[in-house]
Specification:
This protein is mainly β. It has strands at about 1-5, 10-15, 20-25, 30-40, 45-50, 60, 70-75, 80-85, 90-100, 110-115, 115-120. Helices cover about 0% and strands about 55% of the residues. Strands 2, 4, 5, 6, 9, 10 and 11 form a 7-stranded mixed sheet that branches. The chain has a 4-stranded antiparallel sheet with strand order 1-3-8-7, with no helix packed on it.
């Protein structure tokens, strides 16, 4: 089992920045890819970014490329999402999740999820 807790969400003006954190506890966190997802009101949950177990590879949805950066610190069992140049379309609940395949590439099934943190961007 893996327990995930997100933090760092809040209200920010368009053009601003936020840094989300995902703290993990439980089984060997450092062996698994971690992803960030988001769900806006009335929309389906969408993939945002992922990072492999060792941080060597990251992937992003096109809409956040160049603005968001995913990183991890396995010594702290944590993954981060630095979000810059935020716009109102980024408003959503953001979730972190752990991929179910050990040493996966972040494109598989995610089996452990946090409770989410709200990000609201005002225009």
């Amino acid at each position: 089992q893996v327990q995930l807790v997100e933090s760092g969400g809040g209200l920010v003006q368009a053009g601003g920045s936020l840094r989300l954190s995902c703290a993990a506890s439980g089984r060997t966190f450092s062996s698994y890819a971690v992803g960030w997802f988001r769900q806006a009101p009335g929309k389906e949950r969408e993939f945002v970014a992922a990072i492999t177990f060792n941080g060597a590879t990251t992937i992003y949805v096109d809409s956040v490329k160049g603005r968001f950066t995913i990183s991890r610190d396995n010594a702290k069992n944590s993954v981060y999402l630095q979000m810059n140049s935020l716009n109102p379309e980024d408003t959503a609940v953001y979730y972190c999740a752990v991929e179910g395949i050990r040493y996966g590439l972040g494109q598989g099934e995610y089996v452990y999820w946090g409770q989410g943190t709200q990000v609201t961007v005002s225009s």
